[in-house]
């Protein structure tokens, strides 16, 4: 077994640490899902707790398949398809907003005809926008401080995509906006322009709030207000947050052990938004730390890709995708410990999130593809030298 | 600064911010655990939750005709949690006035709006989590109350708690109460409720509940509740009409004779189905109620009704024939120096066995048994015969608490020289009324012994899941010849013997009276003796449909003999059963209809033409019709009935005199009239003249 493992490891191209972190997160998610989906299993599947585990395993296998395919693809192709993907995404976002399937009262999903799989268009839009940004930023490096030729083509897609996602899914929209800002910042966009973009973002958001008063079924104003109010007004937090805190308090240093969580039965969305609380209850402060460190390791590796080839499209792409992933993870954990209001963002790769998981895997596949080429490039440079 | 360096410092800045955020998350986690840990753990304990069982809806008990004998009605108890986490002062104060007003407007509410407001405010101040708002709330009421201000916000925000309870209702009240069953004072379930509890109870569900102060559990909305599985229904063999007849007849009899208690059972001969089982005991208040299942639980010495078993044994063994002669010795005879006396004085000496049985002569029957078994040293054979009749076995009725039968063994220690003669006339043995009836039912059923039973089906949502078929316990208890002779003897008892007071020409009854002295061991003079009067038999004797036993314990007034106390009750039950059941009647028109019988043709009510034709066709009465309309009048025409159609005008009140009430109500109702009815029978007068225009008037009908 170990010899096969070593063989695979030896043959494995790309950044091995990223591969390892991905595997570890996936393993961790299996344990967490098995525990946290207990109440769901009792409600819908007559106590068949394996059902949700099996579903998650199936999704993970499919996700790793997709990841491997994306890893094999030459990352330069992503640069080529980026504008096309963005152009396709925008009408899809509009369609979703108007006709999409509602889950938890938010119109975020569309179903692919024939195949019958539902997915969140915002997941797709996120990929497309980050790909586009990486391409634009890396291509315009030489005149990046110019407003008309560099800044405008970059911010228009950001504003359009984020505004279209925001009515049904403000958290994802803000996350994407933040990721874009950071990517632009790193990509040397002038700070005053970034300030301008922030201002524009605030204007767009105010516009949405006004719109929400007239179209409450499209803009989820109520939810935003309740969640923000819960966060600001009550020091203990909403019922969910209180339950999450009880779970965390129960955990101690080492946790109550796998499968022994009590609060999973009372914590709504224990298997998705609040899985971090259950992880801490079962695996303790140490377990929580391990999860944070795993995500941070992912970020360090991506940063090192940029430091090795700063101007390259690939490095920007990897960093953008990784930032989006890691920030989402941190926001999810911050919700569980009541540092920010409830958002509804999942913990990437860990939560039982269905098709979102597949998109996360695609992101990781792309990052790995980039890492493979940057490795080859640097070894080629070494050879040259 | 070159491009690379600019990118690098920017990226490290971003990295730094992210690392700081991660540290912040970790620190906050640690803070929740370490600094706030005790607070949250205590809070978790205060929200202590547990899965508690939830009772399932109990199944119904149906009568054989589908009427409900026992059912569970849901009622609700409304409580209020005034300390629920999301009930803010703002919400509470905003709604407390309107809620108080709504509550005060409820039917039978004990407080005024002001009173309710005080109650709610006080409870809020005391942090009550389980304040009783209203008990015994019906489902429609619950729906209404759930819409009240504050309550409409639900469990968490509005503190609204509904607790589902079940009340067991018996739509027929006391009818067969003991057999249907209930929870008795010791918390034990009796009757069919107890016997079929497993089926009726269903499966408990589980509901997450939260413990609040005072050790009360309140349900919590949660996603893991397991719904209870409703119990199944059972369908009994009991016919509520016959049951009603039996109970009424028994009650009248018991009251007239001021008896202590009594029971009556009616069984379907061919199947062993118990159609009715009445048990009435005198309460301290002096009235009669179903308080104990005497018919199933009380074993007593049966007395003369047992003579049938002795006689059947003699006939089966072929030792005697009914026309043989016997010396009754004027009703006095000694067996092993113990004197036996006939119950009523007579001066008969040489007489037929038939006559001896009909007058229920103790001396006669005992003498026959002693002569044929004891004297010939084959007493054991007599006991074996009784066992052939299955008299030593309990019936195995579904309900628990059946009294054990007792038939003395020949080789037992208590067997003495006088055992056999006394056993033969119904002493030194014990049987319950049901066991005795089962034996007589076998005689009525041509020797086939059926197991008595009360439940025919188990159903789930109206679909049968289990069906209980009639059970043959013994294919035959005696030869056809012996059974036939026995039946004749039993018919003789009613026609000429101790039960001749209930003899009727309408149908034949076969049966036997019994009068047991309950306290003969105390050797009391006649006035202090306690009796048990019984009558058991079947009808119509030539084609038995039902068997029936009536047992009256300790009659204290107006006689004490089985023939004068129990037989009349039997007759009343049999009469009504007979009247109710067309199948038992001899057809009066089984011959071909005779010509020129116009004078015998019955008067027929007016009414729906189709109904009239169906009825006349069923009765095979000749009729002719000249039209096909909805309504018709019938007149006698020569040797046939003439049906003439009647057209009903949609807004003219017709002549409805001579119609049945059902048809009259139908027609007048369609015309939009208010109808007031008095009397019984067919319409004799109508308050508005025929031909008047109908415009919603009130019409009074007198029936006659």
What does this structure look like?
The complex is a heterodimer of chains A (385) and B (704). Chain A has 385 residues and is mostly helical. Chain A has helices at 2-11, 16-36, 38-44, 50-72, 76-99, 121-139, 147-165, 170-186, 191-214, 221-233, 239-251, 275-308, 313-336, 355-384; strands spanning 101-103, 106-111, 118-120. Chain A contains 14 helices and 3 strands. In chain A, strands 1-2-3 form a 3-stranded antiparallel sheet. In chain A, strand 1 (101-103) and strand 2 form a beta hairpin. In chain A, helix 6 runs parallel beside helix 8 and helix 7 (147-165) packs antiparallel against helix 8. The relative contact order of chain A is 0.14. The model of chain A has no long low-confidence stretch (mean pLDDT 84). Chain B is of the alpha+beta class. Chain B contains 21 helices and 29 strands. In chain B, the strands form 8 sheets. In chain B, strands 2, 3, 4, 5, 8, 17 and 18 form a 7-stranded mixed sheet that branches. At the A-B interface, helix 3, helix 8, helix 11, helix 12 and helix 13 of A face helix 1 and helix 2 of B.
How many structural domains in the coordinates of chain B? 4
- State the low-pLDDT regions of chain B, or none: none
| Helix-strand pattern of chain A | HHHHHEEEHHHHHHHHH
Largest sheet of chain B: 7 strands, mixed
Number of strands of chain A: 3
The percent of residues in helical segments of chain B reads 25-40%
Largest interface: A-B, 48 and 38 residues
Q: Beta fraction of the residues of chain B?
A: 15-25%
Uncertain segments of chain A of ≥5 residues (pLDDT<50)? none
Broad structural category of chain A? mainly alpha
Terminal CA distance of chain B: 119 Å
Helix content of chain A: over 70%
CATH class of the largest domain in chain B: Alpha Beta
Structural class of chain B: alpha+beta
| Spatial shape of chain A | globular
**What multimeric state do the chains show?**
heterodimer
Major beta sheet, strand line-up of chain A: 1-2-3
